[in-house]
């Protein structure tokens, strides 16, 4: 049994994640436009560095509810810098930046026609 002030490595790397704070896109967008932006991001994200399996885990976490997302990032060994998942690292130190539009919907989302 360790002392009360000791922490194991998992405690240091596993932050409790949460949904991003409310945000607005520069102009109102439709759900179809939001989906297109997300698809484009996820299609190109691995080209900016890092490992494909970490990008895949981050996508799964971004599309899951908070409890499942927490389990996904922990099992993938993702080090969460910002609790809203906008900045993460893998165990090798590669940085992964996620825009808020892949993590939540904007306040100015408009209905598709």
TrEMBL record:
Kindly give the Gene3D superfamilies that the UniProt entry links to this protein. Answer: Ub domain-containing protein, DC-UbP/UBTD2, N-terminal domain
Q: Which protein is depicted?
A: Ubiquitin domain-containing 1-like
Renumbered residue ranges of the record's region Disordered: 1-23
Q: Which Pfam families match?
A: UBD
Matches recorded under InterPro entries: DC-UbP/UBTD2_N (IPR032752), DC-UbP/UBTD2_N_sf (IPR038169), UBTD1/2 (IPR039869)
Tell me which residues make up the DC-UbP/UBTD2 N-terminal domain. 14-112
Q: Where is the composition biased (Basic and acidic residues)?
A: 1-15
